[in-house]
Amino acid sequence: MTGRQLAEQHRAPLGRSTLGDQLRRHAANQPDKLALVSHGGDGSRRQVTYGELDAMANRAAHALAGLGVGRGDRVAVMARNRVETIALYYGTLKLGAAFTGINTMYGVDEIRHQVEHAEPTVLLVGGEFVDLAGEATDGAELARVTLDGDEPGWSSYENLVRAAPDTEPETDVDELDVAMLVYTSGTEASPKGVMIQHRNYLASTAPAWSWGVRTGPDDVWLFVMPLHTIAGLGSMTTLLMMGATLVLPASVEAGTALAMIRDDEVSVIAQTPTFYLALAGHEDFGPETVGSVRQCMTYGGQVSPVAIDAWAAACPGVIWGTYWGQSELSQLGSVGWFSTLADVPDGDPTWIGKPVTHLEVRVVDPDGQDTELGELWCRSPSVMLGYYKDPERTAAVFDGGWVHTGDMVRTDGDGNLFFHDRIKDMIKTGGMNVSSQEVERALHTHPGVLRAAVVGLQDDYWSEAVTAFLIPRPGVTLEPDQVITFCRSQLAAYKTPKAVHVVDALPVDAQGKILKRELRQTGR
Description:
By secondary structure, this protein is of the alpha/beta class. A nine-stranded mixed beta sheet has the order 2-1-11-10-12-13-14-15-16, with helices on both faces. It has a five-stranded parallel beta sheet with strand order 4-3-5-6-7, sandwiched between helices. A four-stranded antiparallel beta sheet has the order 17-18-20-21.
């Protein structure tokens, strides 16, 4: 068989392996298996099987094709987690186009920036975002579709799919096509568009999940990760590839989430530390609401010991999973499991587990030499294609044939990885390097601190002054001088905060990750 014949076979259903194909196979092999349970804000509950989801994706594909979407194009969606968003994702992929989600917390300028950069053929938005998205895309050359009702100047998604067939679209798609254009969170700088191919999930990410995250078709996930992020879009992709069930809440309010965990018998949750703390602090939290949960996955920071203790009391058999990943790696990098903090290697709460099966890692110093504490470099079949329209930053992050993650980690002789800090979050104060996360860990041991964030603010004397922003526990009054005195008993003098600010809230993105760039702006 010639190379051309082989390539043609991989673009045809005979030998093709794409994400849309896997949904089609689920629909054929387990059409009645529950794929999605979607909860509406009005209290409604909607169930969708794999057979129904595939049919919806096919109708979405035909509707998008009718709007001019073809192989290599982009489709943008700005909507909360809902059935239509997932159907549109698979419909986009079945055409060989790439899906990009827009953060529902974005303002006009941020929406405009992503649309201008991604240049989607079609923009589809939930009804509540029509005015905002309309203003942001005024004059743009794209088709605009609302997912809810009828709006002047917008096509109705309901009308488009009602007229579309549910047959599989006949298109040329292969595993090397870009499936996702995921924009980084922008916690440090402007977001970058990460291009991820079908093959990444089929060849590497899904197998790594099966081994590392221990997930499978019997799992029921409370799915609150937003679908514009790699955590949301990537996890949804992997879980549906495996035939699991996703529960989609209309709200992540703690009481509502607890009711869904109870009623839908959720077995797995994956969220940032903030979410677990919020659930544990709710009056309905207890064995009656979380008794079905067997795994709690966390990312984007360390879980508060308070949250771990509360979950252990309410759900004694629960296993915690810590994992680390990046958009550039198609999400998953390392995983580790523990029941109590005593299970964590070295008792070090910065532990992020061990590399997943398909990942090779190096820890290097600034000269590129292997070391115990340094920048984490990675390579795997899941590495992104590159940054969209950004060859210079792509070349920089791929320098030397490894992904330069920008994360500083420590490694031990057993292959464990311990997250030290983002290199850009390291504070250079008085000629010394300070890990912002080390100071945060010390602050979290203070009995009156609920949440802490530490940054370096510009200072004429120190260059950067270690500065803490704290949310107090309910009913507690924090005195900055007292907190600084407490830190002196826990940390070296140069690591102790020079200033402490008590705040009601910290700036976070849609996943709950603290936006340290906004905190740094307070010192400008």
